[in-house]
Amino acid sequence: MRPEGPGADRPTVAILIVEDNEVNAMILRSMLRKRGYDPVVAVDGVEGVTLSDRHHPRLILMDLQMPRLDGFAAAAEIRRKGGGASPTIVAVTANAGIEVRDACEAAGFAGVLSKPIDYDDLIATVRRLLAD
After folding, report:
1. pTM for the predicted model, two decimal places
2. Which domains does the chain have, with CATH numbers?
3. Is 9 in contact with 34 (CB distance < 8 Å)?
């Protein structure tokens, strides 16, 4: 599927959502589909690493607090495995205070989106980070 609206001439890019809360994952996926993207969803950090290996997404929306492997550890593993071709990773968290934002910046995240997710912020972030 191709994105609709401004920029519709660009092909769809791979987006991976790594989110353990089913409702939050559904909301993110629905918001992205509304703009023509077809993201893949991983239910936790371990599956996020696996699906990143399989799909080689350009952008990952990564929850920070997950069972088995949190967002910081999953992002580090994805970067380690990806080498120089690592995807852009954005943190998605309900705790977006200055300490968390600083930790995300230090860990190499490209940004932080606060929950509950604002549609306009999400789409603006995705467009900015996927701009060619």
Report:
1. 0.88
2. 15-119 (3.40.50.2300)
3. no
